[in-house]
Structure formats: C-alpha cells, structure tokens
Amino acid sequence: MKEQTKVFDRDFFVVGDFNIEAKGDRFFKALKDRNFKMPEKLDTLTTNFLRSGTYDKIAWVDRDDFKFDGKINVVPFYQAVYQDKTPPGGKQEISDHLPLWAEFKINELTRQSNSVLQGN
Q1: β 13-17/100-105 pair status
Q2: Buried b (16+ CB within 10 A) or exposed e, 54-65
Q3: Which of 64, 66, 74 is nearest to 44 (CA)?
Q4: pLDDT by residue (tens digit) across 17-67?
Q5: How far apart are CA 79 and CA 81, in angstroms?
C-alpha cells in the first residue's frame, strides 16, 4: 500500500469586492462560466457599510464531498468596534464593505487530512 504524504485540497474559493450588482454583470458571468457557485442570498444580501448594495461575493467550485450548508451573511463589524456607527475618520477608515462569511460542511475532509498528517 502506497503511503500518502501529501494532502491535495480541491476546494477553491474566490472572495472579494467585485462590485457585482446584478446576475448579468460580466464578472458574475465570468465566475458562472467557470462553474463557480454562489448562493442565491448573495443577490439580495447588502454587503456595503451603508447596507444599500450587494457588491461582494463568495464563490466556490461545487463538489459532492464539499457542501455549502446554506448559511451566509456579513460581519457587521461597526456594531462591535464603533457602537455609534461613526468611526473617528469616517467609514473609509475601516472599509466601505463588510466582510462576508459562509459555512461549509467539511468534516469528512478534515478527518481525511488529519489522518494523513498524523500518519494514521
């Protein structure tokens, strides 16, 4: 039996401030044409500081053993850092966009990786 010494992870994410506002946008199309998946909630989730636009995206290559569990949202950091929503230097001092988070089911992949790394 060949001993595994490396772990290759096929999970590929693209995240960023794409300024994608609509499904017909060329950046949206570029991701979809390359088989990246994005949750429908990102079509309406407001991701900028003022919560007025849907600019930011998380996209991934969908696989049977790596599943999005349906949970995605923004991190409203201004609520924790600046309770009054007014940073001393204005919102640009931090960012004009809110970080996104998403949950994926990766337990099986984690067990496999741990097994290889620990030599089990």
Answers
A1: unpaired
A2: bbbbbbbeeeee
A3: 74
A4: 777 777 778 888 888 888 888 888 888 899 888 888 888 888 888 777 778
A5: 6
Give the CA distances from residue 92 to residues 28, 39, 56, 64, 86, in Å, rounded to whole numbers and listed in that order.
Answer: 26, 28, 16, 40, 10
Q: pLDDT digit string (tens) for 75-95?
A: 887 676 666 556 666 655 667
Token pair 């995206």 in the structure block, residue: 57
Provide the 3-class DSSP secondary structure of residue 65.
Answer: coil
Q: pTM score, two decimals?
A: 0.65
Looking at the DSSP bridge assignments, the partners of residue 9 are none
Q: What is the DSSP letter of 2?
A: P
